[in-house]
Design a protein that fits this description.
The complex is a heterodimer. Chain A is of the alpha/beta class. Chain A is built from seven helices and 33 strands. Chain A has helices at about 35-45, 60-65, 100-105, 135-140, 195-205, 215-225, 245-255; strands at about 5-10, 30, 35, 50-55, 80-85, 120-125, 125-130, 145-150, 160-165, 170-175, 185-195, 230-235, 240, 280-285, 290, 290-295, 300, 305, 310, 315, 320, 325, 330, 335-340, 340-345, 350, 355, 375-380, 385, 390, 395, 410, 415. Chain B has two domains: about 5-250, Spore Coat Polysaccharide Biosynthesis Protein SpsA, Chain A; about 275-395, 3 Solenoid (UDP N-Acetylglucosamine Acyltransferase, domain 1). In chain B, about 15% of the residues lie in helices and about 30% in strands. By secondary structure, chain B is of the alpha/beta class. The chains are: A alpha/beta, B alpha/beta. The interface between A and B is large, with 38 and 38 residues. β14 of chain A pairs antiparallel with β18 (about 285-290) of chain B, so a sheet runs across the interface.
Chain lengths: ~425, ~400
Amino acid sequence: MSRYAFILAGGEGSRLCLLSEKRAKPAVPFASKYRIIDFALSNAVNSGIFDIGVVTQYRPASLNEHIGSGRAWDLDRSQGGVELLQPYLGWKETDWYRGTADAIYQNLHILEKKRLEEILILSGDHLYKMDYNPMYAFHRSHPGGVTVAVKDVPWEATDQFGILGVDSRDRVTYFEEKPKQAKSNLASMGIYIFRRSLLEKVLRDDSHESSSHHDFGRSILPRLVDEGEVYAYPYRHYWEDIGTVDSYYRANMELTRSDSALELRDPDWVIHTVSQDLPPLSFGTGGRASQSLIGSGCIIRGTVERSVLSPGVIVEAGAVVRDSILMNGCWVGAGTVVDHSILDKNVFVGRGTRLGDGDDYSPNVECPEHLSSGVTIVGKNTRLPEGLVVGRNCRVGADLVERHFTAPELKSGSVLNPPPPRAIPEIA
Amino acid sequence: MRDIGVMILAGGKGDALGLLTKHRPASAIPYGGKYRVIDFALSNCAHSEISTVGLLTQYAPTSLNRHVGIGRPWGLDRRRGGVKLLQPFGTRGSTAWYRGTADALLQNVNEIYGTRHTLVLSGDAVYLMDYGDLLRAHEESGAELTLAVKEVAPAMCERYGMATLDGERVVAFEEKPRRTSTRWASMGIYIFDTPALLKRLAAAGGPDLVYHVLMPMIEQGAHVAPFIFDGYHEDLGTIEAYYRANMDLLAARPPLNMYDPLWPVFTHNKERAPALFAADAKVSGSLISNGCVIEGEVVESLLFEGVTVQRGARVERSVVFADTLIEAEAFVRRSILDKYVNVGAGARIGGEAAVTVAGKNAKLPAGLQVGEGARLDVGVGLGDFPSLHVAPYAEVMRP
């Protein structure tokens, strides 16, 4: 039977700080060579679903470039394949998507010429490896119009999820979005299979309600739970919603362990991505690496410990990279120390610089809620001058160059914002 | 470059490569940690803006066919031109293997009709070269044939066709002479005016491009011009040459730069996870590819994709092809291990001098001791070893 999946990939991910400043959260690089959305896309094609719509809204450029024609996932097809669904004007009352439900509602027309009875809805920001076929089987063997995948989460985290309760026949009895006082620790994973006719009806009804948030978790699910339509499909394996800088950092570090819960080397469940054609990673005579995940094309002449390096990173002799995440094309000069830091793409670390220095763990002055565990973060393309010392929990913006660093030291918790964009001269 | 057809001779059996070419042609041998030899000629074509390439195959072509496919990694998946795999074919009344290099070209002349120039390349060498320079030199000299040559040490002449130059002309040519007075070796790279090539092929007295086309042309005084190439160029004709050419890549400044962002070498790879280094991993002076898991020690070696080196194992001065497993406490030195080899725990493979080779799928039992220069056949299993000791230079063959 033909199947179709929508992947919701429009989220801003504001708690990821600089990492999602210039790209949508699903496009944030992860585990050296992947982007977060690779997991949902690979799960879909590995489950045999080759007809996919990716719904985008916030900063879609890197996502568009990454997915392209979908070739990396075998989604460049004459029948089906992948389609990028951005908001647009000109069709009836279309506008920016008002919420996740509205995003699907505005794209329902693309289902018109498809023979489908069920629609799968996924989120593009989750890390997990899941075969959707057992969930389809569950959906077909239960009477409800909606199946939602659910998982136990730690009680202290229940306020970040949609929490639900089920009866003995797996029917969902209540649903609360991000409750302060949860009655259960069973959370929605944001993965839904809808009976097509029900989805079309409920989205149409919802679109006319001015008081609705037009959101699956806040508007659609609670209503359908009340109607008794929702059943819960239990899932027990690794699943992570990368929400914050800390969870992003931890999920990366988890992958440097040989026994990591998210296995990237399973030949039966390959995570596909767009790989650059780069030479093997090269170790100079003084190069060392331990407990690290390192991409191709890297050149390691210094020491790398407990770190994740994306393809094309160069670590010069005498440099030490520890407990850090370095994205594509970073250059770490001789004699530098990079500790507990996240460097976005193409960051240049001048010789003798120390990043993540000292024992002062003062939280970040501007965003203490995101940066307090000691991780220093540097935005894309920034060039750090030689000999600079940067403390912990610092946020150093994107596109800075040497002359923007006026002091030799950035104390823990400090912020250096990028220069305001140059005004575009008016054309006379 | 328009008006140029490229014919790559990729059917060679590479006899001197022994076990490495038992199931693949020399042009499909893995090289440099993630490539196959043919990637170099194809990538040179891509960078030289050549879009029509014929690949002449004959010997064990499966891995080459699968690797090249429709030529996408090299931008050769085109509606006009592109890459074509040219295997020997049967017609009504005849089935004809290629009897030699000239014969292979002759049987495929349809592919080059209508082009102004034909570039004939060997698919068995690694080098980075802009064929545009060669074409310009050819057009400027007005020669009928331009032959790329490189300088070699006198002792090496036995491996090459040696050209004697007189100014801008090649005036004599000796194929693999015992000794010679010239230092210019043919690189197996020829650029012909296509009409002249067609005429010469039709009139050739035999099937070989060197003996029956090139040498008669020179003897008859045709204008054959040399093109002197001073970059790195290695034929991978023998096991020792193959091994050395891989080790060359481990120099602090390798003579062949695969890291030039303006001249990347393209290849076709499976999707694999990044390399993982465990807490006790030690690696130095090595090239490591995606999918590798390193728990032990790797010194001055090339590890292709998906190689696992378990805890306490040590790999030294070796070339290890894709998906080979080196179990705990094993010690591998100066060896070439083909794909899917399994080195049992505690085995000791290789010695100080001659290179040891294990063929594809060889399963080496735990505790096995293999001396230098030994050959372990493709697919040998645990039962094929009469004892746990293989003497230096011995061969263990599958029955």
